[in-house]
Every structure is written in C-alpha cells, then in structure tokens.
Fold:
Amino acid sequence: MTCTGLSAFWCPRCGDCSCERLPDGDCAFDSDVCPLHRAGSDHAQTIELADCERHVSELAATCGVELTPNDHAIVSQFAQLLFERARAKREKNGEKP
Structure:
C-alpha cells in the first residue's frame, strides 16, 4: 500500500495529520509530531524528492549556506510538494511530464 500525497490529512500507512490549523482553517503542515508532515517523515516520498534534494544542496552551496540535516529535509520536502503540484497541474492541462 502506498501513501497518499505529501499534503494529505490522512494516510492508510502513516496515520492522521496532527498539525495545527491556521486562522483561515488551512493546515500549517509543520507539526514536530505529525506523522505526515514532521521533519524526517518519509510519508509520500515521490521520485521528485531525489531531484529536490539535489537542487536544495546545489542552491545552498551556491549561496554559501550550510544546512543542517533537518533544514535540508524540510526544504527538500517543501520543494517536493511544489514539484508534485506542478506535475499535477501539467497532467490536468494534458501536458506531458
């Protein structure tokens, strides 16, 4: 069984989202204890994640910034979410990935 999307609120393998909700009701996606969105969670890692990790490492090196492992994981997961949304938009518009 595979996980649902990175921004899911529940997952048959990982559990339920426990992130706080913002004033407008949206999910904060940043709880340290959320089984889906915490740093280090492997929930819904997709093939895009490897590319994201590489891009994050290259960007940090270019900027002369040293990322902690936690920084790297959080930024890579956020980039993965952006890549997934871009892929979904292209697919919805009938474009090839």
In short: Residues 5 and 44 are 6 Å apart (CA to CA). The longest strand covers residues 10-11. The first helix runs from residue 48 to 63. Helices lie at 48-63, 69-92.
